[in-house]
Amino acid sequence: MTTTLDSGPSDDLGVAGARRRGAELERSIRERPGTFRALTGDRPTGRLHLGHYFGTLQNRVRLQNMGVEMMVLVADYQVLTDRDVADRLTERVEDLVLDYLAAGLDPGRATIFTHSAVPALNQLLLPFLSLVSVAELGRNPTVKDEIAHSRQSAVSGLMFTYPVHQAADILFCKAGIVPVGQDQLPHLEVARVIARRFNNRYGTPSNPVFPEPEALLSAAPLLLGTDGAKMSKSRGNAVALAATADETARLIRGAKTDAERHITYDPIARPEVSSLVLLAALCLGRDPHEVAAGIGGRGAAALKALVTDAINDHFAPLRARRAELAGDRGHVRRVLRDGNARAAAVAAATLAEVRTAMGVLY
Ligand code: ATP
Ligand code: MG
């Protein structure tokens, strides 16, 4: 069967669709956790922040602890999507691994690995690129947003095509679950489309090569930073997981609010204030409306004091664990070496299957 490039994405795009499919997925995971594999990752562009934690990291640890096989990618090649040089890469990669371990990812159960150490994964990029059109790549809203914020004067081919590289990240290990933040939904759709087109072109209906992966969103799929825009490592608006209590207090004190004194939770009309309310609610395990009502007319200063204490209390154990782990860089390197070896074996098996399906196994 031939597939044309215009057999486009499924209709059910966006957060609502992802949430509905995610709820169904959660039910299946609870019944048979051992039959699922999840993959997700982060760029080693700086320390992980609260957006990562509540957007995806907490979900990763939860899935791991339920018995789902977890693959966690340190996306080192993708550092170069929006900058010319990958600065202090070894240090940043190790810092990321420290954040993972401190948050509760267990290298005995989770495979933590880097792009650059798994050549067979990267080779999947070539056949996958043949399955998407330039026009489709140009329409990706997350890539458009990242290009707008990029420090580079020209858009590189890597920036333009990185969602296809991410499809290789997900499909090389045939992950069915991808716990991510909202900005990743367009990329997940690219991965689903590529899986479908590859299967149609090279597989047989009874024996598809790739499963179609599903995004798993958290309760906070788009946490805002101190300036009211998406909290992001690259935008200087983030509270790092590993920040000190004083740094946290300073950052939250400087967070943008609005002119209305009475605190309410209204993410559409009052994104900045609501984001602070949500942060406190997530840390305290409470409902954001209740948290806002508790502050009421006491205003933004009281809200910021509450948020600061809530963050510092919630993350104190993680921060202490991280400081302890940071003393043993040798352990971090061993975690990566073992993870890279495991990921490379999985990638080699998938690449052999892909080459067989394509008829290029000599
Ligand atoms: P950079 O600015 O370097 O791109 P980032 O902060 O956007 O960094 P990524 O490494 O691109 O972080 O994203 C890693 C994962 O964390 C993705 O699944 C992404 O959806 C999620 N994530 C990042 N920022 C947030 C946020 N503010 N809220 C919820 N999830 C987030
Ligand atoms: Mg990003």
Describe the structure concisely.
It is built from 14 helices and five strands. It has 362 residues and is mainly α. Bound molecules: adenosine-5'-triphosphate (ATP) and magnesium ion.
Give the number of helices.
14
Round the mean pLDDT to the nearest integer and report it: 94
CATH topology of the largest domain: Rossmann fold
Largest sheet: 3 strands, parallel
Q: Per DSSP, what share of the residues sits in E-state strands of 2 or more residues? A: 5-15%
Q: How many beta-strand elements? A: 5
- Return the structural class: mainly alpha
User: Measured on Cα atoms, how large is the radius of gyration?
Assistant: 21 Å
* CATH class division of the largest domain: Alpha Beta
Give the second-level CATH assignment, the architecture of the largest domain.
Answer: 3-Layer(aba) Sandwich
The N- to C-terminal Cα distance equals 24 Å
Give, in order, the helices and strands: HEHEHEHHHHHEHEHHHHH
Keywords: Aminoacyl-tRNA synthetase, ATP-binding, Ligase, Nucleotide-binding, Protein biosynthesis
Pfam families: tRNA-synt_1b (PF00579)
Family: Belongs to the class-I aminoacyl-tRNA synthetase family.
Organism: Microbispora triticiradicis
